[in-house]
Amino acid sequence: MFSGLFADWFVPESHGVTNYAEPRGVSLRIEGLSKSFDGRAVLRDIHLDIAPGETFSIIGPSGTGKSVLLKHIVGLIEPDAGRIHIDGEDISAADKGASSYRYSMVFQTSALFNSLTVGENVGLWLREKRVCPEERIRAIVAEKLALVGLEGNEEKLISELSGGMKKRVAIARSLAMNPDLILYDEPTAELDPITSDELAQVIMDLKAKVNLTTVIVTHDLSFALYLSDRIAMIDGGEIVVVGTPDEIKNSQNPVVRKFLYTNTKGIKGDV
Ligand SMILES: Nc1ncnc2c1ncn2[C@@H]1O[C@H](COP(=O)(O)OP(=O)(O)OP(=O)(O)O)[C@@H](O)[C@H]1O
Fold this sequence. Notes:
Blueprint (H helix, E strand, L loop, with lengths): L27 E10 L2 E11 L4 E5 L6 H8 L7 E6 L2 E2 L12 E4 L11 H11 L5 H14 L15 H13 L5 E5 L7 H17 L3 E6 L2 H7 L2 E6 L2 E6 L1 H5 L4 H12 L6
Helix pairs in contact: 2-3, 2-4, 3-4, 4-5
The structure holds adenosine-5'-triphosphate.
The site of adenosine-5'-triphosphate has 12 residues, from helix 1.
């Protein structure tokens, strides 16, 4: 899990922020990624290929390395071994200033600024970076709020919003920078099942409207099965299986069966 040290979105200065082009879904390739902390292996020889425009979820029990994998993808952690390529570019070797892709992350805590309005939160980065004139910023904010079903809510205060609305504002704020890759860390944490379903629909609608690649880390199995093109299950720092939701549901791998059983019955046990 990511700590609250970071806002729920960010784009490092070095990742081409001044390039405010339309988003393009990027491919992601992870090759032989391994990471240990204090001699304890957390990720072991991870290989993953995620296609441009894909909605890809990484599921698995708590403490199995999902968030550490996500942190590698955004360059917050350096691997001990292995490579990550985004649109063919080795992000560990690249001159970050020359990177052409943009990414943003929606962290578990929406981390919105309560003292600002919805519109001010969504437009914060655009105004701070002076990406375009104020009139254009207002139009972009309205467009991003519409994408998450919150059109016309610019003047609302964050304190007036439900948990689900806050999450959608956090997504709109991430979208404000036109990311090519958007990453979600436990997006349904703290949401009730109905609000989680609504959020899944928002993310699915985004896929239809915006050309971006989506990576979701979650232990919410039904959420992942509902909205993902493909899912990787990670256990003990290793990828156990990669497949479509149907392939995951029908997997005969005992580790997957156990995870499915535990998550559908809410109790531990063998299938
Ligand atoms: N910076 C770090 N230093 C040392 N150990 C770490 C660090 N970051 C993560 N870990 C350890 O790596 C393991 C995997 O953590 P991670 O947060 O990736 O789990 P997770 O699968 O995302 O679980 P959860 O769903 O509970 O967040 C944990 O045992 C965690 O304590």
